[in-house]
Input
Amino acid sequence: MSRSSAAGRIGRRVYLALCYLFLYAPIAVLIVFSFNASRSRSVFTEFTLKWYQNLFHNELIMESLWNTLLIAVLASLAATVIGIVASVGIFNMKRGMRAAVMNITYLPIMNPEIITGVSMMLLFVFLGGLFGLELGMWSVLAAHITFCLPYVILNVLPKLRQMDPHLPEAALDLGCNPVQAFLKVVIPEIFPGILSGFLMSFTFSLDDFIITYFTSGNAFPTLPTTIYSMVKRKVNPQINALSTIMFLAVLALLLLMNLKKGRKQAEN
Output
């Protein structure tokens, strides 16, 4: 039994190592070649930081990065606020109506992104013709709020179900008005769901390409569309440098969150 259990442990570790290798080997290659002096994607010639220097002087990439971050922040904030209100409304519905509304909420998630992108493009072109607007920041922002909203609802609703339904009533009995009871009692109880919904919205908005491609037009470049247009010609090493910076930023954020969580657990 001991030999078989030891072999099983070794097999599990090897399998886990292969999984991590499969996941992170492409990122490791990207990071290594972001420091390559030549444009070769297969031969490492010499260590250099010139692609990082050129990156911060590339106006198109910097503008696209700013646009992407701006849209991600605005869309996730707007989707979070709307999603909280929608979640409370859905939670207070009758069971049959709630099930029907939840099925509608699932549709943007289950729907292929290309269908969502094309349909939104047609809608925005129609609205633009009526009001004399061209596709740009407003259309991308509206599209991102639309597809981020279901993720907020699906994160907040379970927290509302877990909350003691008598807490808001107790707050009202103790002198709070409905707004104060909601802000001081309900929001703290469902805050983990709000935070999860916001982070998911921010991540999906930052990463989205297909819907952005159809709704951005020509005057509002974002990072995914800019990278796509650059990769069609040839992979620019500046993209490797930018991807490395973004990966390290996310890694640092995860490490900080884990350290903070570990300290809280140690204190408790």
In short: The radius of gyration is 24 Å. DSSP finds eleven helices and no strands in the chain. The mean pLDDT is 88.
